Amino acid sequence: MKRVSKAVALSLMVLLPMVGHTDDKDVVDYRQHIMKSLEHQTAVLGQILSGAGPAENTLAHMETLALTASVALKSFEAKVPGGAAKPEVWKDWADFSKRMKEFADKSAEMAKVGREQGVDQAAMLVIEALPCKGCHDVYRDEKKL
Amino acid sequence: MLVYRSQPYSLLEPRTAALYSEGNVLNRSTALPRLAWAGIALAGTLLPISGHADDQDVRDYRSHVMKTLGEQFAALNQISKGKAPAADVATHAEVLSITAGVAKVAFTPKVLGGEAKPEVWDKWDDFSKRLDEMVAAANDLAKSAKSGGVAAVTPKLSSLSCKGCHDVYRVQKK
Amino acid sequence: MRCLRKPPYWVSGVLGVAVLTALFAGRTVEADGSNLSSGATNDADALVERGRYVALASNCASCHTRRGGAPYAGGVKFETPVGTIYSSNITSSLENGIGKWTAEDLRRALHEGVAADGYRLFPAFPYTSFTQMTDEDVAALYAYMRTVAADEYRPPANDFLFKQRWAMTIWNALFFEPARFKPDPKQTPEWNRGAYLVGALGHCGACHTPRNTFMAEMPEQAYQGSSLREYVTADKVRDWAAVNLTSSADGLKTWSVDDLTKYLHTGFSLRGGAWGPMNDVVGNSTSKLTLEDARAMATYIKSLPLKIPPEGEATISPVTPEQAALGQTIYKDRCEKCHGASGRGGMFSGPPLAGNPTVQSADPDSLINAVLYGATPAEGMKLGAWETMKPYADVLSDTDIANVSNYVRGSWGNAAPPVDAARVAKQR
Prior knowledge:
By secondary structure, chain A is mainly alpha-helical. Chain A is built from eight helices and no strands.
């Protein structure tokens, strides 16, 4: 019995780290799941605010947007070029990370206002909270989308 | 931001209001107080455009919602396999849960096309029930993620199989 | 009591007038709240201010101010099929501007197309629109123009044909009838205000109304779209298609009065934003008018009689599905991200292409320009949350651009005639 459990323990020690191994493709895939999610959520919010979607879901979308934005920056920390991320992301990390953090903060603020004061008020913050343009112009490679 | 007078969303063309009836309440433990719902109903007042959601808008909206579910689910799968940061598990589970909660509204207007088969409305009772089940499972997942992290989430992920529903209700992808 | 006799009957009249004057005297006070100056100065200031507004609405500055030149000093080049003409210096310079002009001189120029020394103006100066200006607005404009700082710039001489001013007598006889604006009693005051702003001051028809062989606007096709030529540099021209402003399918059908008001007032609406030659119009003129005036213009424009395609256009068939299909992959790779798979754009992505007048114009020049050169708003204006459209001139070939243009011109209900690669080449 002892020998079996020792063997089991040894193999686990060898195998477990391999289970957790993240390769480059995983990194790119994960951050793309996040960014694409953001794209969809931004789109639906835009639909609702222009009267082409169900207003009752406004707050839900603001919440999910804020939550997703909160994990976006970290997904770029691993310096793995690929997908549509230009090398500038890491070359200008100070600026990139500052912008991502602003995005996370402002969308969190928007969701908070939505929860506490109603989506009317939150909608006022929407343009500020979603500065996709400024960042994408610099850091996203249009040809690789 | 300039404020333009426009009609509140709920008072817009009858079709729009009817399309998205206000009978659907977010299926979340933190239900919004009534006052917040009033605020949401007035959402159109200060928002720029008077609205008209047509068929394509309905299709686009539900496509975005379902695709968000797909992306979040994929992210959770990666996390459960150790291929993405474990610390993010609660966030994605929460997003999944909230998004699942709005899916039914997305399918309420009977607009054929996109990837939705006519069965969605022909068998609305069953479809609707399955959506409810998905919401319940997603809410449960979110709770587990908060309290037990990846370890608690991994075994439950399989309970969120998309295939069963998609086989019946989604147009097969070629 | 005996001391309190009833006052004479006329006292109440005097008192009444005094009260009313006190109440309404405040109405003629300047926006800055000053009511201490004498009545005469107040009125004069008000007149100049009104004239300044008329000049904004008429967008004098855009045609009379050359790049790098002083305001209103002229020198903007207009190349027509029959030669080149330059805009004149209309500053208050005595030698080189209109400093010597009387109020009647200015009125004659605006209403009849005749300058102070009797020579006739060419309709590159849209006196054919300004003839509708009210006498009050003309007087106000005169008061304002007197305050414009003098500049001694002399524009270059016009080409030969544009020195033959006698020829204008014939042209005017054929195509011009001086006439003040007459409000339509059947319409609302707002509509009439819009008709005046669009037709008389804004002279939108100068670009948006097709012209005949003699370059006269054709009133029976008012605002149905035309072409114009931009001088990018001294020797590089770029043609544009000014869209059909009526609400037919290839015009502003999908735009509401609200959308158009926002466009004029801020340069941005969810149906589309101002870019290209409209930057001068929105940036220098309409965005500086009141919101009410912008709404009036939008109300009028949305009421225009629909364009019915003239015989020539009706026989050009729209893009075929086969032609459109050639551009589908390019669209998916390059355009879909911002303009959407369903061509509807989005609040945070880009303008809709479905039902878009630029896309649907029979004349594809503006559409091609958008793809070649991108689209940027006027200085200081933003296109909402939209990402800037990049230029694709170096990335897509003429054939590619023709194909993707055909795709958008034939999808989602759009039905515009096809574009060929040669047209794209011409626009480079």
